[in-house]
């Protein structure tokens, strides 16, 4: 039985509780399109692969830890090349756009989309849209070829430029139609993917043979469903430099305190994983876990205790932590994100004021904010590989006629995910999950939560899953959230 929801997801139910949340296909609204043999049949790179075409019935489960009597649950269509394609190489006229903030790996994704279209499918017409969404109607395009993009992965940022906002659906689709573009690759975070979903729906209403493919980008790793977003590994790795500098400064002074502010507007994944990787951090503060400063069990008491024991300490704070302690600005950026006050500066000042008033402990505090240094660097080896696979999956999907999808990794397998699943909510660290418990046991910091707050947090997260696995990969702190959402 198959049903369809607002053009963005086709749900197919099977036996034993199997549910496929499928992505749209161009033939859903343009029937009887001709198909062509996939050019990979004659590609030397794939000649040694035993099974290089993905079966149309292949799917990937969102949840991999199950009991023998539990339903098979939600699945997504497996990514990869199909036997038939819906575009000839000569017909393809693709474009690529990057939107939102900078993130390591953007240039790698651009490079691999261009290379994949050319080297795999023989498609040579690729345009770069300059300056984000508004570039569709306010700027010139940039022709892209393998030669032009060959070395861009060694640079940070994006050669196409980026911006926030500027989404005018009618103007964008008019530009796509006027230029004869039939494949649109959109790289950006949840706001960008929401825009991509609206673009897809307008294209569908107009009956255009245009495939819209998204590649999810957010350095904060707060996109739901997928295991992780590209650039996250690089951010965690680069954050170690700032933490190490803070540790050296703190250790070199009597009662030294190093404060490092890391990215994480609503989700504390970078702060959590950087803390676990460093082992030099004494306290990690994230948006999902409230904390307080004064009184028994507060941060000031813990700082005094650590200084007495070790003579120094390092604090990592995510940019969105402690917002309940700061006066709200009630302002937004062009993407609709709430503008936050600098929690790192505020916290550093409060610590200085507290200990200067006590006059019992003279402290030396150093504050480090590496945010823009981290965002602007090239991706590391792990992210470079990941970006390559995301780009190739997106190209395979578009050539196969799929549209209105995001290419993403689910349980270690590349999949096509409907836009609405990517944009339905932001992913957050689950403070009642074992990953956060691992951090607390690593730093030995207080949880800052009383019994009443813990009970409330558990109620908000839903009933505790009995299917908790012992995975230690990046998805561990997120899969608990996914499992609980589905209950």
Helix-strand blueprint:
Layout: E1 2-5, E2 9-13, E3 18-22, E4 36-37, E5 59-61, E6 73-78, E7 84-85, E8 94-98, H1 106-120, E9 126-129, H2 135-138, E10 141-144, H3 146-149, H4 169-179, E11 183-188, H5 190-206, E12 211-216, H6 232-251, E13 256-262, H7 269-278, E14 283-285, H8 299-310, E15 312-318, H9 343-358, E16 364-368, H10 371-375, H11 381-399, E17 405-410, E18 413-418, H12 419-423, H13 434-443, H14 451-461, H15 476-486
Parallel strand pairs: 3-6, 8-9, 8-11, 11-12, 12-17, 13-15, 13-16, 14-15
Antiparallel strand pairs: 1-2, 2-3, 4-7, 5-6, 6-18, 9-10, 17-18
Keywords:
disordered N terminus; alpha/beta; four-stranded parallel beta sheet; single chain; 487 residues; 15 helices; twelve-stranded mixed beta sheet
Characterize the structure shown.
This protein is an alpha/beta fold and 487 residues long. The protein contains 15 helices and 18 strands. Strands 1, 2, 3, 5, 6, 8, 9, 10, 11, 12, 17 and 18 form a twelve-stranded mixed sheet that branches. Strands 14-15-13-16 form a four-stranded parallel sheet, sandwiched between helices. A hairpin with a 2-residue loop joins strand 17 (405-410) and strand 18.
């Amino acid at each position: 039985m198959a049903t369809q929801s607002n053009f963005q997801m086709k749900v197919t139910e099977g036996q034993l509780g199997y549910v496929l949340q499928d992505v749209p296909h161009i033939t859903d609204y343009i029937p009887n399109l001709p198909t062509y043999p996939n050019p990979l049949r004659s590609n030397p790179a794939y000649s040694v692969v035993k099974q290089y075409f993905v079966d149309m019935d292949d799917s990937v489960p969102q949840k991999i830890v199950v009991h023998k009597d539990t339903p098979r649950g939600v699945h997504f269509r497996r990514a990869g090349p199909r036997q038939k394609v819906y575009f000839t190489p000569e017909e393809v006229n693709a474009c690529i756009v990057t939107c939102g903030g900078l993130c390591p790996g953007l240039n790698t994704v651009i490079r691999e989309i261009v290379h994949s279209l050319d080297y795999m499918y023989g498609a040579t017409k690729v345009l770069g849209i300059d300056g984000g969404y508004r570039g569709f109607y306010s700027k010139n395009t940039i022709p892209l070829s393998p030669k032009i993009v060959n070395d861009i992965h060694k640079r940070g940022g994006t050669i196409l430029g980026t911006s926030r906002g500027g989404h005018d659906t009618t103007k964008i689709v008019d530009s796509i139609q006027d230029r004869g573009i039939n494949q649109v690759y959109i790289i950006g975070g949840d706001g960008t993917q929401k825009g991509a979903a609206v673009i897809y729906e307008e294209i569908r209403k107009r009956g255009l043979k245009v495939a819209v493919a998204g590649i999810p980008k957010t350095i904060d790793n707060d996109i739901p469903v997928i295991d992780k977003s590209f650039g996250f590994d690089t951010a965690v790795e680069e954050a170690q430099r700032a933490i190490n500098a803070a540790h050296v400064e703190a250790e070199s002074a009597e009662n030294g305190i190093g404060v490092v502010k890391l990215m994480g507007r609503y989700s504390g994944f970078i702060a959590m994983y950087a803390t676990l990787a460093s082992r030099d951090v004494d306290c990690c503060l994230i948006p999902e876990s409230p904390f307080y400063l004064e009184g028994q069990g507060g941060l000031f008491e813990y700082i005094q205790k650590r200084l007495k024991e070790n003579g120094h300490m390092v604090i990592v704070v995510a940019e969105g932590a402690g917002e309940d302690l700061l006066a709200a600005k009630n302002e937004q950026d062009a993407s609709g994100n709430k503008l936050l006050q600098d929690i790192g500066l505020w916290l550093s000042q409060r610590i200085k004021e507290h200990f200067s008033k006590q006059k019992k402990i003279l402290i030396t505090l150093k504050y480090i904010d590496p945010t823009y240094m981290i965002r602007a660097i090239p991706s590391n080896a792990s992210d470079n590989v990941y970006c390559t696979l995301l780009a190739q999956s997106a190209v395979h999907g578009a050539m196969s006629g799929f549209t209105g999808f995001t290419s993403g990794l689910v349980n270690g397998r590349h999949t096509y995910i409907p836009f609405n699943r990517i944009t339905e909510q932001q992913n957050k660290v689950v403070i009642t999950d074992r990953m956060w418990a691992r951090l607390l046991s690593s730093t030995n910091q207080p949880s800052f939560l009383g019994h009443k707050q813990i009970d409330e947090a558990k109620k908000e997260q839903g009933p505790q899953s009995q299917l908790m696995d012992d995975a230690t990969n990046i998805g561990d702190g997120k899969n608990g959230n996914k499992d609980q959402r589905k209950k």
